[in-house]
Amino acid sequence: MAVPKVCGIETEFGIQHLGGDGNPVASSSLLVNAYVGGLARAGWDFEDEQPGNDARGFAREGALPPEVETHLVNAVLTNGARYYVDHAHPEYSTPECPDALELVRYDRAGEEILRRSMRAAAQVLPPGQRIVVYKNNSDGKGNSYGCHENYLMDRAVPFSRIARQVMAHFVTRQVFCGAGKVGTETPQAGADVPYQLSQRAEFFEEEVGLETTLKRPIVNTRDEPHADPQRYRRLHVIVGDANLCEVATFLKVGTTAFVLAMIEDEALGSPELVPANPVQAIRQVAADPSLRATIDLTDGRRISALGVQWELLERAVKYAEDQGLGAVGGEAVGRDVLRRWEEVLHGLETDPAEVAGQVDWCAKLQLIEAYRDRHGLDWDDQRLAALDLQYHDLRPERSLFQRLPTEHLVSEEAVLEAVGSPPRGTRAYFRGQCLARWASAITSANWDSLVFDLGTDPLRRVPMMDPLRGTAEHVGALLDACATPAQLVARLSGRG
């Protein structure tokens, strides 16, 4: 059986420093520091950072894995998340979540943390300056930044099979999880594309590869499991957009969890759904809001993106009947993914305006077309590009998204709780609870360990190599029974 699809999202946010010197690294550092300065938190432990490891066992000649920037602010929060500066962007990495619905909650918590960061930065900036953050994926000048997903997978599944069988989903899922985009920024997108489904699609140039910023691949090969490498791999997904619609995030993660579970259990069936030219196909799909374009498959068929998604849904329904829903979040979450997957595909097929409350590109297109009609604008009018950006503005008073009647899956109370408290169903619970109780005794932390300073040599590293252990059920009573970190470490080592 497939392992449970523990999941997470890493979001790089767009940033503007209005009235400042224009240095995005300095602005991002100021923003993150303004928020984390007064919080219980730990610095990041870079011990296990190996971004150059390739799941294929080799890397293409000249490949450039991401640099590890150890000199920039990098904090672990009490909700189990990582908040830091990555290159020239503030980045929030959710804690590990047990299912797609919980991940929506912690992704939303990240948005709230960025809003609080903007307010905190405003308190220390000179008069007339402010930092503004956008949850989008490009600056309109040819620079793209990522929203990456991570999924726990069984190490025994050959990576070549994962890459081949997940490709059709990655190429076509943008029909419901694309964030929408006015115009193009790259020559390869095509000469005349007024509106795209996805902010990221035009930036992908390879089918499979290690890079994340240059020669971006649809399937990324980074092999950092952040867990027991003999048992697990972490599929690092870089092909997605940053979503504001909660249903879009839920389906982006939930449908991908289904596809990966089917791959693990060899349950995708036949015929195979493999694009003949994935890079060309991902751009074709993005450039066609009518959803009528077809792509070539390796078996000779031509099929629309919606057609691919309908076939994947049919196979997912059969998988649920045959194998159950344990790997995709359990009965309630798994059934909701299947139900919403079908409803959104039906809405897209009938009239995309029907799903504007669930799908970002539909919501944005409806808003922009209304503005175009009202003012008689051509698609290349800069006011439309400004509207596009304002859709993603995280300031509530400026955000166009906030004014739209989109569907919510999690309450505001649940989101605010997630800002400071970790998920209960993964090892993030242990990490977050230890930080909340004993931050001063934790010298550093990362996804798979905590390092304690108990006042005696040496420092004590507590490993957390299984993302499914360290849960509230597993360690809650132990944490409550320990008054000090020394007692905790002694109990964990069998001496208490």
Automatic annotation (TrEMBL):
The UniProt keywords, alphabetically, are:
Hydrolase
Tell me yes or no: is Hydrolase among this UniProt entry's keywords: yes
The answer to keyword DNA-binding applying to this record is no
Q: Which domain of life is it from?
A: Bacteria
Q: Mind telling me which InterPro entries this protein's record contains?
A: Pup_deamidase (IPR022366), Pup_ligase/deamidase (IPR004347)
Q: Which GO terms describe its molecular function?
A: hydrolase activity
> Which Enzyme Commission number(s) are listed?
3.5.1.119
Q: What PANTHER family has UniProt attached to this entry?
A: PUP DEAMIDASE/DEPUPYLASE, PUP DEAMIDASE_DEPUPYLASE
Q: Which family does it belong to?
A: Belongs to the Pup ligase/Pup deamidase family. Pup deamidase subfamily.
What protein name is recorded for this chain?
A: Depupylase/deamidase Dop
